[in-house]
Amino acid sequence: MDVDRGSAVSMSTQIKTVVRSRVLDGTLPPGTRLPSSRSLASDLGVSRSVVVQAYEQLVGEGYLRAAQGSGTRVSSHLPVGAFPDTTAVTPYPVRFDLRAGATGAALFPGREWLIAYEGVVRSMDRGQRPAHNALGAPELRAELAGYLGRVRGVTAAPSEIAVTSGFTHALTAVCAVLREFGIDRLAVEDPGDPRHRRVVSRAGTEVIGVPVDDAGLDVAALARSGARAVLVNPVKQLPTGVALSAPRRDALVGWAEQARGWVIEFDPEGHLWFGGGSAPLVLQRRLPDRVVYAGSTRSLLGPGPLLGWLVGPPQVLDALRRGQARWLGAPDRLTQLALADLVSRGLFDQHIRRVREMYQARHDALRSAVASYLPGARTLGVEAGSHSYVALPAGVDDARLALVAGRRFVLAQTGRDFRTDRQAAEPALVVGYGAVERDHIAEAIALIGHLDERGAGRR
Length: 459
Hints:
Blueprint: H1 11-24, H2 37-44, H3 48-61, E1 64-67, E2 71-74, E3 96-97, H4 110-123, H5 138-152, E4 161-164, H6 167-180, E5 185-190, H7 194-202, E6 206-213, E7 216-217, H8 219-225, E8 229-232, H9 246-259, E9 262-266, E10 291-296, H10 298-301, E11 308-311, H11 314-322, H12 333-344, H13 347-373, E12 378-380, E13 387-391, H14 398-407, E14 410-411, E15 413-414, E16 428-432, H15 438-453
Parallel strand pairs: 3-14, 5-6, 5-8, 8-9, 9-10
Antiparallel strand pairs: 1-2, 4-11, 6-7, 10-11, 12-13, 13-16, 15-16
Helix pairs in contact: 1-3, 2-3, 4-12, 5-12, 6-7, 13-15, 14-15
């Protein structure tokens, strides 16, 4: 941090503001130990009393805690109201985490992963120094080419695949590549994942919202926006849960061809389809020269190692190679080889089948619980992945309902949390079941229903 001695704001207030913002944006997670007041004062060239005052105020507000012998740390339980956006870092001790994207330890194949790690370590040639490849270990890229083609219909050679540290890593890199191509505006679904909007903005790219209806992304609105690139989730849109319809798929491919536009296809749910028939195949196979396909292990491995993949045409991969400095942060080679081993022996496929069955059971439990405890509510969205869109009856104040639920240790998101203008067309909850066991879903929804009966969610 920097201290502006010429500012009208006191130096202790400046320090307090920066530390609090770093706590809120997750840079300083709960439990993080801060520098001693003497050390920070020395680093900043200020009086120790200035830092002591800032720390004391943050302790009083609940952001920090000070204990004899353990120094000053970020509080484990931050003050209620510190996070008005329910997609942010958890502000309360959590009993049930119903946020979309949250995952639990049950999703991680610990035994198989340890065996894969052990096998990779045993097979390592201690005297060999593997050649550096900025786009990922060749072994994993080869396995991903086969797996993604077999499971999702992706058409790509290993040379057209890059390994990432998750989708955030991939999206940041693609935004940089698009800027090289002269594109500094990216269309996104609205409503859509607010985390993706933040990633795009931090990458220096302008975000343009495009409406979503019951057929998915409005491609006509995309064409009117003037954007030359779009981020879309065709299988199961977050938060609405709708799949991009066949006519809209045709229209999106046509738009990309006619406008020479780029489609970033994010596909977290295609591996986890448990509805009737098969999941729609990827758009990338229809237009590989204009579609950049991306996915990650977040919804597949839970809190385990986070890896991802990015599939693109040669000009995109070449741009990534040229910009190796911004590609730093890819997973370590050992982790990449462990995943390659799981895929090659069919263990990854077996694990995905278990996860799919687990999500289907939780999805069914959620639908049953909504019918029992939220009268008049409707569970919408295709049967895939780890979340559902629950439309609430008119007159329900979904924002207040989620706030009160949070104070009862149930974290929930509303439909408005995913909109750029925070205005919901209808009251709704976006319920994720990746972090809640099937047997606990009814209890969590019953608690929300009880709060609504008591008037917590009524206007």
